[in-house]
Amino acid sequence: MSNIKDVAKLANVSVATVSRVINNKGYVNKETRILVEEAIIKLNYIPNEFARTLYKKVSKTIGVIFPHLSNSFYYNVLEGIEEEAFNKGYKVMICNSREDASREEEYLKQFVKYNIDGLLIGSNSNIQSKYKELNIPLVSIDRKIDGIPSVTSDNVGGGYRAAKKLVESGCQNIVHFRGPSILLTVKDRSLGFDLYLKENNLTCTRVDLAFIDPEVQLITNYLNDHPKTDGIFCDSDIIASLVLSELYHLGKRVPKDVQVIGYDNTLLSHLVTPKLTTISQRMFEIGKEAMLSLKCLMEKEELIDVHKLIPVDLIERESTK
Amino acid sequence: MSNIKDVAKLANVSVATVSRVINNKGYVNKETRILVEEAIIKLNYIPNEFARTLYKKVSKTIGVIFPHLSNSFYYNVLEGIEEEAFNKGYKVMICNSREDASREEEYLKQFVKYNIDGLLIGSNSNIQSKYKELNIPLVSIDRKIDGIPSVTSDNVGGGYRAAKKLVESGCQNIVHFRGPSILLTVKDRSLGFDLYLKENNLTCTRVDLAFIDPEVQLITNYLNDHPKTDGIFCDSDIIASLVLSELYHLGKRVPKDVQVIGYDNTLLSHLVTPKLTTISQRMFEIGKEAMLSLKCLMEKEELIDVHKLIPVDLIERESTK
DNA sequence: TTGAAAGCGCTAACAT
DNA sequence: ATGTTAGCGCTTTCAA
After folding, report:
1. Potential cystine with B192: which of A149, A152, A172, B160 (Cβ 3.0-4.6 Å)?
2. Averaged pLDDT of chain B
């Protein structure tokens, strides 16, 4: 690996001049510049970022903390982050906390060692105080935290849209198979769902399930006990797919007897029969916007929209009328 | 942020002593050590990795190049890599090439700037010469390349197992709905599939499809034209799910009339009706093993198994007899 | 317009 | 057992 000295020697100038060339900073004669540039190419010189950062103290690197990677929401958001980071010249270090606070703290230390310029938090842990100690720009993803800028999916809107669709399509006996109700996202969806129902003098019942590994038995039991059910809102496409399969076994026709709405617009939603109507979160956009907010903070630009709310889309397919 | 000088001052020792303490290297008196450790805690001191790396030239960081992130294979492998890297004290920088060679080269430069100690390549591009120029340890994932250690899934075995299962369950008219046949993985699966068929004096026909967005029409046409088909091997669970849905529309019963085997053991496979029999790749293990191989190379340990072949598992569910 | 030199925070060889 | 110091590769101030 060649270094700045090698380039200086070959171009017959000082290292200061080389530095000026690679940073496009300060005065440098046109001809000198060309000389230096030729030397750079000849030596295949790439500046050492560690030396640079050691001096300048900005690493052009951000940290991302997610509770999982193998979950369609997170890796799609990650793709959005990565895209925008790449565009803006930032590197991404990712921490997969696995919902383990100690693991998360360990990563936080790594991040400090690496002088990260900013942090994107998508975890559910409660070590915000540790984040604040870092004294670097912070943006929270999919969770609104006091005093921290955030980018969240419009979960209230998602619930509202789902309720609207079911009611407008004639549903009267509605159930919400939702995710774990401790989660804010789940609470928000419930809120929005209830909001529309209330506006129309309706109510619904609820069952709490896991997003990824829902307890089928709870679904079966509910449907058996409530044969009049004609509208079902599910907090994930996975739940919705299981519901579809249960309805099939019960001899209910979808969407004729019962209408079903899923959440996430995953691949699943057009691979099951009938194809799922579902609420689509703009995950890529969430990632991009989070990175954009963080960039504003890192580069001391004004952040106009401190709490960005990314809209959802209702994708109508075959499981609703 | 405090630095080593601050710690030295507070503990009334020299920076060299502090360095010895934090690196656990060289002689240092017990009492002095305690003094230093107290100072470290008091100042919340975390060594600056940039200064360290600048001197030592090992960054304890690896690069990972993948063509996508939003694909179950890659993000699961990534989880395995990340897990093992974390255990061994390595950081991970990830490059999402989006199958774009220029993007990949840009990342490669970043990697050089950041002194990465090793590189894990999971892309399909053909810029190996660029990789070699880096002169750092390399491990290829899911693709055997001459002169580079690799970790691959046993695709030949996967095809073989699938054929064996179909034939042993009585299938005679077999079709292989495979992925794009330019891909080595697809070729290998075909090879293994044919191998078993040949051993039993059977053959099969083939249709090339995309893994993620298969052309449904091709499936429909084939099944219409070949009503005698009784065994179907699909190169992804997505393809298999579409096949299931087509068979349903054609009034064929699965597994009674036709048996179907998928690939990947994704969530999908137990969300469709009937649940899919499928070949499961040990993605997490592939990631871990790749990181392990790379670690051997980076730390100049002997790499016993240069080309690791990770076995696959046949997961029997309801789509086969 | 260019160069000399200090210094970013750390490690390690050498001296004590 | 501990301290002094050069130097890793770069940026930037100051002087020329």
Report:
1. B160
2. 93
Instruction: Tell me B267's DSSP state.
Output: G
* pLDDT tens, residue by residue, B242-254: 999 999 989 999 9
pTM of the model: 0.88
Give the pLDDT band of residue B70 (cuts 50, 70, 90). confident
pLDDT in the model for residue B232: 98
* pLDDT surpassing 90 at residue B218: yes
Q: Is the CB of B273 less than 8 angstroms away from the CB of A245?
A: yes
**Whether residue B124 has pLDDT greater than 80:** no
Neighbours of B41 (CB within 10 A): 10
Residue B97 dihedral angles phi and psi, to the nearest 5°? -75, -20
B78 and chain A in contact, CB less than 8 A: yes
DSSP-assigned states of every residue in B132-154: HHH-S-EEEESS-BTTB-EEEE-
Residues of A in contact with B286 (CB under 8 A): none
Strand (E) or helix (H) holding B14: none
Partners of B66 in the beta sheet?
B96
Quickly count: other Cβ atoms within 10 Å of residue B24's Cβ. 8
Say if residues B139 and B293 touch (Cβ distance below 8 Å).
yes
Encoded tokens for A91:
């590197």
Domains defined for chain B, CATH in brackets: 4-56 (1.10.260.40), 61-153+284-310 (3.40.50.2300), 155-282 (3.40.50.2300)
For residue A137, the model assigns a pLDDT of: 93
Alpha-carbon distances, residue B189 vs A283, B102, B160, B162, B196 (angstroms): 34, 30, 7, 9, 11
Please choose, from the candidates A60, A31, A36, the residue with its C-alpha nearest in 3D space to the C-alpha of residue A299.
A60
Q: What is the pLDDT of residue B125?
A: 75
Can you tell me the distance from the alpha carbon of B309 to that of A22, in angstroms, rounded to the nearest whole number?
A: 45
Q: Which of B151, B93, B96, B142 is nearest to B117 (CA)?
A: B93
Instruction: Evaluate whether B263 touches B277 at the Cβ level (below 8 Å).
Output: no
Suggest the residue from B2, B70, B244 to mutate for an interface test with chain A (most A CBs closer than 10 A): B70
What are the backbone angles phi and psi of residue B273, rounded to the nearest 5°? -115, 125
Phi, psi of A98 (to 5 degrees): 50, 35
Tell which residue, B101, B133, B139, B99, has the closest CA to residue B120: B139
By CB neighbour count within 10 A (0-12 exposed, 13-18 middle, 19+ buried), where does B98 fall?
A: middle
- What's the confidence (pLDDT) of residue A124? 75
Is the CB of A124 within 7 Å of strand C?
A: no
CB within 7 A of strand D: which residues qualify? A 1, 3-5, 15-16, 19-20, 22-23, 25-26, 45, 47-48, 51-52, 54-56; B 12-17, 20, 26-29, 31-33, 51, 54-55
Between residues B224 and B213, the one the model is more confident about:
B224
pLDDT band at B309 (very low <50, low <70, confident <90, very high): very high
Does A69 sit within 8 Å of B59, measured CB to CB?
Answer: no
Which ranges of chain A have pLDDT less than 50? none
d(CA A66, CA A78): 9
